[in-house]
Amino acid sequence: RVPPISFRRKSIMLQLAASSILGLTVPHTPHAPPRCLAASRAASPVCVDDKSEVEEYFNNEGFNRWNRIYSEDGEVNAVQLDIRTGHGQTVDKILKWVDSDGRESLSDGTWCDAGCGVGSLAIPLAQRGATVVASDIAGAMASEAERRAADLGLSERASFSTSDLESLSGEYDTVSCIDVMIHYPPEKMAGMVGHLGGIAKERLILSFAPDTWYYRALKRFGELFPGPSKTTRAYLHTEEAVLKALSEAGFAPSRTEMTGTNFYFSRLIEAVRQ
Questions:
Q1: Chain centroid to CA 17: how far?
Q2: Residue that wins the pLDDT comparison between 93 and 36
Q3: Where does residue 146 rank: exposed (0-12), middle (13-18), buried (19+ CB within 10 A)?
Q4: From CA 156, how far away is CA 44, in angstroms rounded?
Q5: Cα separation of 78 and 62, whole Å?
Q6: Using one digit for the tens of pLDDT, what is the confidence trace for 124-166?
């Protein structure tokens, strides 16, 4: 359903967002080999390692920006506040599922939070009694999450490390990957879901930006007004493609939610092993 906000107003807001959140989404194709770009017709191609670029971004300026967004007391502009609100709503919906299932089931299992950021989900899970193994591609993000958990006395419940998704191993009752799929191109998404499914014994919880005509139009409009250093490469995914990838990994959806604010939109799916 189209959110109750006019397309004209949304377009204007996206134009403002493009100029006010520099580097909101950056190139991130973790499975892909380095891209080779021709500097000129006569020059040799220049190869760019997307994965290294993303790692560098989130360890530097990206960390500063997103740490503020994911901090309740961090100073942010109106657009960043809206994104903070949207992300918080997605996390709250997962926690509502957890609470409705009963904390006994949470404390008896293990939880892997892949792409944990600064611990927005991992920390409240640990507070509820979960044993959480969390990781992020950026060491700065994982270190900040570890610091926050330690400040709350949760170091024994939650551990944090630096790792990309491809390097994750082991077995966990639940694996979550929230607001990370936007960095994966459609042709690489199924492989990412399959790998996460391979380490999830019972449940996968994923969120992604849905590929609908409405959100696709908004994204394209926003890309017409890039800021001076913006490098947008945000990937949308159809729900059908994500459900197919989950099915191929041996999972079926059990609960779904949708979060949509002015600048944040995310489909949330919980899937259980068949």
A1: 19
A2: 93
A3: buried
A4: 52
A5: 18
A6: 999 999 999 999 988 999 999 999 999 999 999 999 999 999 8
48 CA to centre of own chain? 23
Judge whether residue 31 has pLDDT over 70: no
- Tell me the pLDDT tens digit for each residue of 223-237: 655 554 444 467 899
Q: Is 122 exposed, middle or buried (0-12, 13-18, 19+ CB in 10 A)?
A: buried
What is the Cα–Cα distance from 252 to 243, expressed in whole angstroms?
8
Contact of 99 with 126, CB cutoff 8 Å: no
pLDDT of residue 209: 93
Q: Among candidates 186, 88, 175, 105, which has minimal Cα distance to 134?
A: 175
Which of 257, 252, 264 minimizes the C-alpha distance to 96?
A: 257
Q: Rounded distance, CA 33 to CA 40, Å?
A: 21
* Percent of residues in the chain assigned helix, strand, coil, to nearest 5: 45, 20, 35
What angle (nearest 5°) sits at the alpha carbon of residue 57, between those of residues 52 and 58?
105
Q: List the single range of 24-33, 119-128, 178-187, 237-246 with lowest mean pLDDT.
A: 24-33
Tokens standing for 193? 């879901």
Which range (54-63, 133-142, 182-191, 255-264) has the least confidence? 54-63
In single-letter form, the type of residue at position 252 comes to: A
Q: From the CB of residue 109, how many other CB atoms can be counted at a distance below 10 Å?
A: 15
Distance CA 176, CA 125 (A): 11
Please provide residue 237's backbone torsions phi and psi, each rounded to the nearest 5 degrees.
-135, 140
Instruction: Give the residue from 239, 111, 114 showing the smallest Cα distance to 178.
Output: 114
125 neighbors 111 (Cβ within 8 angstroms): yes
